[in-house]
Amino acid sequence: MLPMSPVPLLSLLLLALQSVWSSTPQEPKVQGSPQPEISSLHHPTWSLGLQLYRSIRVDASKTNTIISPLLLANSLLALGGGANGSTVAQFHDLLRITKNEKADREALTRALKSVREANGSSYTLHSSSALFSKQAPALEKSFLETLQTHFGMQHVALEDAQKEPDMEKLQSWAKNGMDGEETAALEQALESKPGAMILANALRFKGFWDRGFHLESQDLRSFLGTKYTKVPMMHRSGVYRHYEDMENMVQVLELGLWEEKASMLLLLPFHVESLARLDRLLTLDQVEKWLGKLNSTSMALSLPRAKMSSAINLQVIV
Ligand SMILES: *[C@@H]1O[C@H](CO)[C@@H](O)[C@H](O)[C@H]1NC(C)=O
Ligand SMILES: *[C@@H]1O[C@H](CO)[C@@H](O)[C@H](O)[C@H]1NC(C)=O
Ligand SMILES: *[C@@H]1O[C@H](CO)[C@@H](O)[C@H](O)[C@H]1NC(C)=O
């Protein structure tokens, strides 16, 4: 069976979902900790990520939506450390922090560490996080130190005295952290009133396929997105984990990264359609079902060679 033979018209190729991050197996588990490892769908970053993804997609925006739940969870954890009263509970709810707070925190930190450690061998990753503040009351020194040392988060003051507008400052900060690569620009302006604190994360990820596509097996083909365009397509045949979900009319295909410790899931609808229906399918239960049903199948793949970027302003979502 060749469910994805290299036909010139690959109907809309969609949602890429980082999946199955696995922490390094040799690390000892925290004794008695109920916290699942990040490779498990029960890890809190999964529910956080899918919940956020669905909220972002509600307005059916045409842009790509790329988020790193892990980076976001880490930043929320960092900020939560400076919160008090009911705000603490809100952070804990989002991150599903239980009574075993210390173990939960450690599990998140450990997950981030393991992802950072594979940098260079399985993918290249650039990430920066910062807390920008605008004429905010002085922040406690010990809090800022914890941000820096535990979470690698800088603090940047946006002051009036500096001529550069806030948005430009954020943009150049992001670019610096990405090794000078251009970053996507925020479409909506940030509301940064005096006293505001802005949490910013920037991420650049380039995965190395476990089974790479060769430059010579690349050509220009017609591709149907919202209209026909010519795009560079790369081709490869091999055995991939795949599942054809007849009920939901979508093929699910897994491409391995990081020696199978991570992967990218591609959802390929049977027909050309907008993303709305697939966006709604993306629940934890559904993803779990799909992952459980993937089966090794020999197939020929044609994928557009793509670079995706997105800038998301969460201020307008919550
Ligand atoms: C946290 O809130 C409590 C009252 O809810 C207050 O007594 C305490 O001083 C606050 N702590 C900080 C660090 O602001
Ligand atoms: C990953 O490695 C690159 C160098 O190859 C480095 O520039 C970058 O800062 C590293 N990323 C992280 C998150 O440590
Ligand atoms: C994979 O395919 C084999 C043979 O068709 C079948 O026996 C097996 O149940 C399938 N596995 C899953 C997880 O569907």
From TrEMBL:
<dbReference type="GO" id="GO:0005615">
    <property type="term" value="C:extracellular space"/>
</dbReference>
<dbReference type="Pfam" id="PF00079">
    <property type="entry name" value="Serpin"/>
</dbReference>
<dbReference type="InterPro" id="IPR036186">
    <property type="entry name" value="Serpin_sf"/>
</dbReference>
<keyword id="KW-0732">Signal</keyword>
<dbReference type="InterPro" id="IPR023796">
    <property type="entry name" value="Serpin_dom"/>
</dbReference>
<dbReference type="InterPro" id="IPR042178">
    <property type="entry name" value="Serpin_sf_1"/>
</dbReference>
<dbReference type="InterPro" id="IPR000215">
    <property type="entry name" value="Serpin_fam"/>
</dbReference>
<feature type="domain" description="Serpin">
    <location>
        <begin position="50"/>
        <end position="316"/>
    </location>
</feature>
<protein>
    <recommendedName>
        <fullName>Serpin domain-containing protein</fullName>
    </recommendedName>
</protein>
<dbReference type="InterPro" id="IPR042185">
    <property type="entry name" value="Serpin_sf_2"/>
</dbReference>
<feature type="signal peptide">
    <location>
        <begin position="1"/>
        <end position="22"/>
    </location>
</feature>
<dbReference type="GO" id="GO:0005783">
    <property type="term" value="C:endoplasmic reticulum"/>
</dbReference>
<dbReference type="GO" id="GO:0004867">
    <property type="term" value="F:serine-type endopeptidase inhibitor activity"/>
</dbReference>
<comment type="similarity">
    <text>Belongs to the serpin family.</text>
</comment>
<dbReference type="GO" id="GO:0030199">
    <property type="term" value="P:collagen fibril organization"/>
</dbReference>
